[in-house]
Amino acid sequence: MNRNPGSPFSITDIALTGLSVLFLALLLTVLHPCPALEDGTRMICYIAWTSLVITAVLDVLLSAVHFFLKDPAKKRLADLGIFVLSAVTFLIPGTVVPICGDISMQCRALMRPGALIFAVLLILCANMDMNSLQKRSG
Q: How would residue 125 be classed by pLDDT, with cut points 50, 70 and 90?
C-alpha cells in the first residue's frame, strides 16, 4: 500500500522529505514575521519565526536521514523524532512564544497558520509511515 512498485522509497518517505523542505522554503520566502520597527528593533514574532526556522531545519535533516534509512526500527525512531518536532512546531507560534496581537499583522495572517498547517501535515504523514512500518514488520 505504501510502496511505489520499482522504487526503494515509500510514498510517505517522499512526502515527509518534500513537506519538510517545502515548509523550510516557505518560511524563508513567504512566511516571514512582521517587519522591524522604525528604530530597527524587531517585534516579538521574530523570535517565534527564528524558532520555527530552527525546527524546520531539524525536520529537514531528520526527514533526509529517514529517507535513506533501510531498517524499519530506525525509520520508526526517525518518524517519532519528526512527530515530536512537528508537535513543537505546532506549539511555538502563539503558545510557547507570543506573537503580535493584531489579527492583520503578518505573523498572525501568514506565519502562524502556515506553521500550523505544515505541522499537522507532517504529524499525519509521520503517523501514517509509523503505522505502515508497523504493519510491514508484523
A: very high
